[in-house]
Each structure stands twice: as C-alpha cells, then as structure tokens.
Design goal:
The chain is mainly α and about 170 residues long. The protein contains five helices and no strands.
C-alpha cells in the first residue's frame, strides 16, 4: 500500500514540476539575466521605429535631404497582429500540452489496480485530444483558404473618389 501511495505522490510531483520545465525549454528562455536582457533589447529593437528624426535639427548638413517623419501606425498594427497571433499560438500549445499531460497521467494512474476507473477518464481525454486536433486542422485549413482567396484592391480605386469630388467642385 505504501508503494502505491509513493507512486501516486511521485506522479503528482511529476505533473507539477515537469510542465514548467518543458515550457521553459520549448520557449528557449535564457536562464541568466544577461541573456534575458539581450532578448528584451531585441524585442524592443524589432518594435521600435525604423526611421528616427535627428535629435538636433539645426545640425543637419545642407547636402542631406530631410528625413520624413516616421509613421508608427503600420508598425503598431503589425506588432498588435503579431502579438495577437503569438498569444493565440501559445494558448493553443498550452491546451494541447495540458491534454497530453492529462492523457499520460490518467493512463499511468489507470494502469494501477486501485485506480482502474481512471481508464474511462483516459478514454475521455483521448476523445478530447482527437477533437481538439481536428479543430486545429480545420482552423489551419480555413486560414490557408482565406489567405489564398484574399485580394487587396488596387491603390487607384482608392484615389478615384477624390477625382469625383474635384469634378463636382469645378462644375459648381
């Protein structure tokens, strides 16, 4: 009886300690503070503006053309979309990892004689895992189809209403 209790405690400790270790390895987070600082700097470099106006406009050489003011709207929308996509992928990976851990835990515990009832829960976890994988494949296929069918309007079509307004103004 004590061996079964020790085995159950070992499985519980494994379920508590193994997921954070695997998550840290999969995200390839550096363990030291210098590596973490470099990673944060690289993130800031990617999200910052690419064109920066000079700090002192009086010292611009006469031969240098003035740099256009940076536009942040495109970079901000791209970073928001990228961040949203990263959160979605992380959430999907976490759900998949949780389902795999639940499957493994219920299988191991279900194989022990006092916990044979957990095999039914294991089958339920298997069904949930299969359903989730099917949903992920369907979402990926829908996204690929949407990407193939998406077409942007040409820029000339957006300029057409201005010409119409100019003609209306000149006619009056």
């Amino acid at each position: 009886m004590t061996i079964v209790v020790l085995l159950v405690l070992a499985v519980i400790w494994g379920a508590v300690l193994v997921p954070p270790m695997l998550r840290a390895r999969s995200e390839s987070r550096p363990a030291d503070s210098i590596g973490n600082f470099r990673h944060q700097l690289s993130v800031l470099r990617r999200t910052g503006p690419t064109v920066v106006a000079p700090a002192n406009p009086l010292r611009i050489p006469s031969y240098a053309a003035p740099t256009p003011a940076p536009t942040y709207q495109m970079a901000r929308s791209y970073s928001r979309a990228g961040a949203r996509r990263a959160r979605t992928l992380k959430r999907r990976r976490d759900v998949l990892f949780t389902l795999v851990m639940a499957m493994a835990t219920t299988l191991v515990l279900g194989l022990l004689p006092p916990f044979r009832a957990l095999l039914g829960l294991h089958l339920l976890c298997d069904l949930l895992f299969a359903g989730y994988v099917v949903l992920l494949v369907q979402a990926r296929n829908a996204s690929a189809e949407r990407e193939m069918k998406l077409r942007f309007l040409p820029a000339a079509a957006a300029a057409q209403p201005d010409n119409v307004l100019l003609l209306r103004r000149s006619a009056n």
